[in-house]
Fold:
Amino acid sequence: MDVATRKPRGSRRRPDVAPPKVKRIPPRSGLSRAEVIANQRQRIFAGMAAALAYHGYEDTKVTDVVELAGLSRATFYEHFRGKEACFAAAYEDGVERLAAEVEASAALAEGSWDDCLSAALHAGLGFLGADPALAHMLLVESLAAARPARLEHERSLVRLAEALRPPAVVPGGEVVPEETLRLLAGGLASHVAGRVLAGEAERLPQDHDLLLRFLLAPTQAADARVAAG
Structure:
């Protein structure tokens, strides 16, 4: 296509996905160099997530990311070698922020392990529901990205499965098998991804009770068998 007749990049954007709110640093802000770099990275990550929501991984270009981040290409390349490296860093950052939110809520919960799981699930669903573009990147585009990113997605599922492991509080009681935990993690991720793909990320908190029953079912079944002798 001739450059003169090429459609503007903005015309390719999905009208139902809003661009991220860019927090620009004014001149003479007084911020340290480290703070400026951290701000730039977060803007790039937000731009990456938004670009993926517009175009998908394959069609997303660095031009899209910097446009949405409100930064120059030169600034982008000061941080990352290219799209793949940027995606990997953005994915890792998103997973860590999600994990921090979930773990903090679980730590503050009082009561049984079921209560902690409920609090953690509520926090995770709320976090993802509040940022549909990030949820899309973590749960949908991670499967379309280059192989290293897909491996990171698999490692995230292993981490999630481990977080779903109930404490061994009953001597001689049944232990939920590793395979079951992986299936629970995969089922949870699949349900959330389906919501995101349907444009219903904001509704994720409404699924809390349904998903909690799903996650607790194997433990409750094991407890019932132990009680029955």
